[in-house]
């Protein structure tokens, strides 16, 4: 339902501007001498900055199902990042404009506005909030290189301090308290949910089987200990292994796509060795426990029954399509025809190929083609057209490494296919 996908955006925009709308009768409009005008800019940017910061916290709550109002968790994380970044820029404008507003009076007045005596606690709370923001945002600046994910996540806890200090600053200085209480509860409540409530609500599973697929790739088969999750194809979960013998990643949550059919009582998850935690998972032992949180995402939710589908999966990015194919194999109703291309370097790395060939032979309307880059080079328009002549007319779903996604998106857009018909998932959203 497209309206549902975007309804979260509308709600969010209303909330971003709510404190400003409430404050506008007090602030009045911009105008007058530069000093007054800059004060107005400083106040407006400060109000928007805090609203965005609190909402960045609110959208990080990760309640299963909540992400669907925003077009999936991947998109919601992008919104979270965007809000955090925009808030940081606005905080800088806030301080700069208020300082500059006092310059016409004197330079000393400008310095005193920004750095008053320590007895002006409300203002110093604002500076402390800014410092907390710098601490948790700095590692994300390209200048420092790729952040270590787990360390960066722990550092993110400082964001709770930034939210709290910013909120305190506003409650002491702003005239209107209720919008700040509302957004404050949303932002801090979301963090409390993530850290306190969500871990208690994870589903307990037991590793039933570990199927080696290729070098550095296994498929875990997990059975729920009590009630399992319900999912639709293309969704993913956060998996927290509890196997005591793991060399890394024990008790750490990582996102993985569900490669089993929704009707299967067990979860199947294909895991490629891409770092320390996923490397350790290659040796997980059957019988050990794992916690599952989710499901999240809506990769295949954007379905258009009037058009056939083209699925392009590369590397471990084949997993959402394996889930989709397994669903078809269990007799799921197919809306139109589906053509799956499996992009791999060679037959050995096309670890799900045998099963996919078998499903294609059994399910009418589902076609499977492999593409080996060692033999054929990169995927071309001619190769797609040779096996799927009407590919430009289809609804297209892509999942694979970032380089492959980029190449395929470019190739398809160059064929005149509108971007709205190309849906991509990248296994690297943070
Ligand atoms: C929506 C989604 C679905 C995915 N599905 C699969 C799948 O089906 N099979 C599979 O093998 N891999 C999948 N991945 C990738 C998998 O999550 C990473 O390979 C794994 O988290 C790497 O952790 P690591 O400690 O082994 O490696 P690291 O070296 O720590 O990380 C490697 C990269 O993975 C990312 N990453 C690490 N930890 C996390 C985390 N907790 N949350 C988000 N990103 C993280 C980082 O951006 C980092 O650049 C998926 C990722 C996403 C976002």
From TrEMBL:
Protein's organism: Billgrantia kenyensis
Q: Could you tell me what this protein is called?
A: Ferric reductase-like transmembrane domain-containing protein
For this UniProt record, give its keywords in alphabetical order, as a comma-separated list.
2Fe-2S, FAD, Flavoprotein, Iron, Iron-sulfur, Membrane, Metal-binding, Oxidoreductase, Transmembrane, Transmembrane helix
- Signal peptide residues on this chain, from the entry's feature table: none
Principal cellular location given in the protein's record: membrane
Its lineage reads:
Bacteria, Pseudomonadati, Pseudomonadota, Gammaproteobacteria, Oceanospirillales
User: What are the FAD-binding FR-type domain coordinates in residue numbering?
Assistant: 200-302
Gene Ontology molecular function: any one: flavin adenine dinucleotide binding
Matches recorded under InterPro entries: FAD-bd_8, FAD-bd_FR_type, Fe3_Rdtase_TM_dom, FNR_nucleotide-bd, MRET, OxRdtase_FAD/NAD-bd, Riboflavin_synthase-like_b-brl
What is the membrane topology here? Multi-pass membrane protein
GO CC, any one term: membrane
Cellular compartment(s): Membrane
What's the domain of life for this entry?
Bacteria
């Amino acid at each position: 339902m497209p309206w549902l996908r975007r309804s979260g955006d509308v709600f969010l925009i209303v909330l971003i501007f709510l404190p400003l709308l409430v404050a506008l009768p007090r602030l009045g409009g911009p105008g007058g001498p530069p000093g007054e005008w800059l004060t107005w800019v400083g106040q407006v940017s400060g109000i928007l900055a805090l609203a965005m910061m609190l909402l960045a916290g609110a959208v990080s709550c990760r309640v299963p199902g909540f992400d669907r109002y925003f077009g999936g968790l991947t998109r919601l994380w992008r919104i979270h990042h965007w809000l955090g970044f925009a808030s940081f820029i606005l905080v800088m404008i806030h301080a700069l404009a208020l300082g500059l507003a006092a310059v016409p009076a004197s330079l000393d007045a400008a310095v005193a506005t920004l750095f008053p005596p320590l007895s002006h606690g409300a203002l110093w709370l604002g500076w402390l909030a800014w410092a907390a923001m710098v601490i948790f945002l700095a590692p994300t600046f390209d200048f420092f290189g790729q952040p270590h994910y787990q360390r960066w996540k722990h550092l993110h806890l400082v964001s709770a301090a930034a939210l709290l200090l910013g909120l305190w600053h506003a409650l002491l200085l702003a005239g209107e308290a209720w919008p700040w209480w509302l957004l404050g509860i949303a932002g801090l409540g979301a963090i409390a949910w993530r850290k306190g409530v969500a871990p208690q609500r994870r589903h307990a599973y037991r590793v039933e089987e570990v199927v080696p697929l290729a070098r550095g790739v296994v498929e875990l088969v997990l059975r729920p200990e009590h009630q399992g999750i319900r999912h639709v194809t293309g969704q993913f979960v956060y998996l927290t292994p509890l196997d005591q013998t793991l060399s890394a990643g024990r008790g750490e949550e990582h996102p993985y796509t569900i490669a089993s059919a929704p009707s299967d009582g067990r979860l199947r998850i294909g895991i490629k060795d891409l770092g320390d935690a996923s490397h350790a998972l290659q040796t997980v032992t059957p019988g050990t426990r794992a916690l599952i949180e989710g499901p999240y995402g809506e990769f295949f939710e954007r379905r258009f029954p009037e058009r056939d589908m083209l699925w392009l999966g590369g590397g471990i990015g084949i997993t959402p399509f394996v889930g989709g194919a397994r669903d078809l194999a269990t007799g799921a109703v197919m809306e139109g025809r589906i053509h799956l291309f499996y992009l791999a370097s060679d037959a050995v790395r096309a670890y799900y190929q045998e099963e996919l060939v078998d499903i294609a032979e059994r399910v009418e309307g589902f076609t499977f083609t492999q593409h080996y880059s060692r033999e054929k080079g990169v995927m071309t328009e001619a190769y797609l057209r040779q096996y799927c002549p009407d590919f430009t007319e289809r609804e297209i779903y892509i999942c694979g490494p970032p380089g492959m996604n980029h190449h395929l998106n470019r190739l398809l857009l160059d064929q005149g296919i509108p971007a709205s018909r190309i849906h991509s998932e990248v296994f690297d959203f943070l």
